[in-house]
Amino acid sequence: MPMHYVRRTVHGQTPPDVMLRAVREVRLDNKSIRGTAERYNINYRTLARYCKKMSPEDIEGDCVQPSLPVGYVKNRIVFTEEQERQLENYILTASDIYLGLTPNEVCKLAYTFAMANNVPMRPNWAEKEMAGLDWFGAFLKRHPTLSIRTPEATSLGRTSTSGISIRLPLVSIPLCSDSSFLKWKNC
């Protein structure tokens, strides 16, 4: 698969609530699969597959969204959107206080963050103790506001902002998603 995947079809884009309504119509109202698929503009084989896969709790219950994922699922996403937002905010905060991070440091930070939050990751992350370059490239594409490159040297007179000295090393990333994302150690 190329690095810049462009979707060429509209297959697999049926919303989950529409699929659930169609399955309920087939299973509960005993309508035909082909007729229901035509009414909801779904492929009849796809509807037949979901009629077999969906649990009776989803069909008979009053839920709006099925517990089963419908359509194509993103693969290789390591962090949730909230975790990626925290990582992005951390990188932006570090650059605001003149502590720019290099690409390797961001990859190591991502590995540390994944370990701290017990996120399942690819085996090569554990071997190298840093995230891969493919993850880094995709992360930058998802967050275009970030500009990660080798930071410029900053004079000591400009380094202390809001009482935090730049020479203090980063200690840990918290396990929970609280607002105190930066933890500093006093040397």
Structural class: mainly alpha
Please compute the radius of gyration using only Cα atoms: 24 Å
Beta-sheet strand percentage?
under 5%
Question: On the 0-100 scale, what is the average pLDDT?
Answer: 79
Number of helices: 9
Largest sheet: none
Task: Give unreliable regions as ranges.
Answer: 165-187
Morphology: elongated
Distance between the termini: 48 Å
Q: Helix proportion of residues, in percent?
A: 40-55%
Query: What is the succession of H and E elements?
Result: HHHHHHHHH
How many β-strand runs? 0
Explain the overall architecture.
Helix content is 45%, strand content 0%. The chain is built from 9 helices and no strands. The protein has helices spanning 16-27, 33-40, 44-53, 56-60, 81-96, 103-116, 123-128, 133-142, 156-159. Helix 1 (16-27) packs antiparallel against helix 2 and helix 1 crosses helix 3. The longest helix has 16 residues, at 81-96.
